[in-house]
Amino acid sequence: QVQLVQSGAEVKKPGASVKVSCKASGYIFTSNGITWVRQAPGQGLEWMGWISAYNGKTNYAQKLQGRVTMTRDTSTSTAYMELRSLRSDDTAIYYCSRDLGDWYDYWGQGTLVTVSS
Amino acid sequence: SSELTQDPAVSVAVGQTVRITCQGDSLRSYYANWYQQRPGQAPVLVMYTKNNRPSGIPDRFSGSSSGNTASLTITGAQAEDEADYYCNSRDSSGNYVVFGGGTKVTV
Questions:
Q1: What are B13-47's pLDDT values in tens digits?
Q2: Residue B85 contacts A, CB cutoff 8 Å
Q3: Are B98 and A47 in contact (CB < 8 Å)?
Q4: Distance from CA of A4 to the nearest CA of B (A)
C-alpha cells in the first residue's frame, strides 16, 4: 500500500532553517511528483510547491521563492523540503503528498514545525 | 486572500443534502479537486477533476462545475462527513496551484 512517512516535529529559532523528509513506499517513486502543503494553526491549506520525482524539476509558490528548496533522493525514495530564514509565521504543519496532476491522493502524516525564540 | 473562494461554513441535518462551492476565474479553464480534513488529521482526497471519486469514497459525494464555480455535493449527509472541505486548482496564471479557504461542514 502507498505510504508517505514524514520526519518528526521540529522546533527552530527565527532565522534558522528546517529540512523535512518524506519517505515514499508502495509505488514507483519516480512515477509521480511530490507536492508540499502547509497549514498554520487554525488556518487553511497552503500550496508550497512541487517536485518531479523523475527528474527533480521544481515549481515553488511565489511567496516562498528564494527561501524554499525541494529535492529528492531516488535511491531511498525520499523527498525533502528545506525552508530557510524561518519566521514565526512559518509555524505550521507541513505535509507531503503524492501528486497525480494537481490532485493529491496520498498524504504524509504531517510534520509540525514550530518557530519560536 | 485566495484566488478560490469558499463559504466559510455550512450546516446540514443528517440525511439531507449539502452543496459546497468553490469560485474562481481559473475554474473556467481548470478542474477543481476536493479534500476532506477532519480535526487533527491529514487531508483526504474525495473528488478529483470535477467528478471522479477515489476508491473508498462513498458515492454520496459528487462533483460538478459550471462557469467559474465548482461544487461538491453530499447527498444524504452522515455524521462522519462533518469536517473541513477544501478545493484546489490552478491560479489565474496557470503556473501555480492554489487552495480555497475551506468550508467547515457541520452535520
A1: 999 999 999 999 999 999 999 999 999 999 999 99
A2: no
A3: yes
A4: 12
pLDDT digits (tens, 9 = 90+) for A18-37: 999 999 999 999 999 999 99
Q: If you write DSSP's letter for every residue of chain A in order, what string do you get? A: --EEEE---EEE-TT--EEEEEEEESS-GGGSEEEEEEE-TT--EEEEEEEETTT--EEE-GGGTTTEEEEEETTTTEEEEEE-S--GGG-EEEEEEEESSS-EEEE---EEEEE--
Cell numbers found for residue A68: 524554499
Q: Which residue in A44, A59, A103 is closest to B45 by CB distance?
A: A103
Query: What's the pLDDT tens digit per position in B88-101?
Result: 999 989 999 999 99
